[in-house]
Amino acid sequence: MVKSKCRYKRGMIRVRLLGGAKRALGREYVDIYSEQLALRDLLSILASMSMKGMFYDPSDLIIVVNGVDSSLLGGMDTIIRRGDNVTVLTIVHGGDS
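Structure (tokenized):
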């Protein structure tokens, strides 16, 4: 179901990981072999692949599906389909407390 470091094919969901998300999984791309799945299920798959067995809280992530912020598409209920491109990056906060 999941493969990394291979050439992109139209029959996959391509996930690009940036920042802390990339560090958590130790790779920049993950290819998911599925017809469709909800964004929440994608995050569960990424958590299972994480080196620490967990992933970021969705509120700490920006997730873009085919160039559109997932919060505009239905949030965690967004359906991702074969051929879609998903980018996941962590939100970095800083400043005084």
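The chain has two helices and eight strands. Helices lie at 20-25, 39-49.
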